[in-house]
Specification:
Elements (H helix, E strand, L loop, with lengths): L1 H9 L13 H13 L9 H13 L17 H4 L3 H14 L2 H21 L8 E2 L2 E2 L1
Antiparallel strand pairs: 1-2
Length: 134
């Protein structure tokens, strides 16, 4: 705990956010990873933004199947408009965060992923996002 606090004090850029659906301990662990990771899209606050984007995509009325819209702008400000990139950032966060935080984040996403698979239609023209077809 002291080592994590020392790391946080040395690299204090943005105070850790409260991430809806996750405990404060997990939010803190995610924040430490966001500070230390070199991925362009995983910056302080990115996991919270990606989760909100993913939730927002799934929280629409179910009168018809959901369809993804792909964004052509790759800048940090616009990138999460593309829900597939938001989900990829969340997957990257799961890979780099450790212990209980990983389990909690994975559990949070499991229900959302099931809903995503249930309510989206397959794209007949998939594209590659971070090496995987979407």
């Amino acid at each position: 705990m002291r080592a994590e606090a020392a790391l946080y004090d040395r690299r204090r850029q943005v105070p850790p956010l409260t991430i809806r659906g996750l405990s404060d301990q997990t939010a803190f662990a995610v924040h430490l990873v966001e500070i230390a990771d070199k991925d362009y899209y995983l910056y302080p606050g990115a996991t919270a933004r990606a989760l909100e984007r993913y939730r927002g995509f799934l929280d629409v009325p179910r009168s018809r199947p959901l369809s993804q819209e792909f964004n052509v702008c790759d800048c940090r400000g616009c990138a999460f408009d593309d829900v597939s990139l938001a989900r990829e950032v969340l997957e990257h966060a799961i890979q780099v965060v450790q212990g209980r935080a990983r389990s909690e984040l994975r559990r949070e996403l499991a229900g959302m992923d099931a809903e995503y698979r249930e309510h989206t239609v397959p794209n007949p023209f998939p594209r590659r996002v971070h090496g995987r077809l979407w």
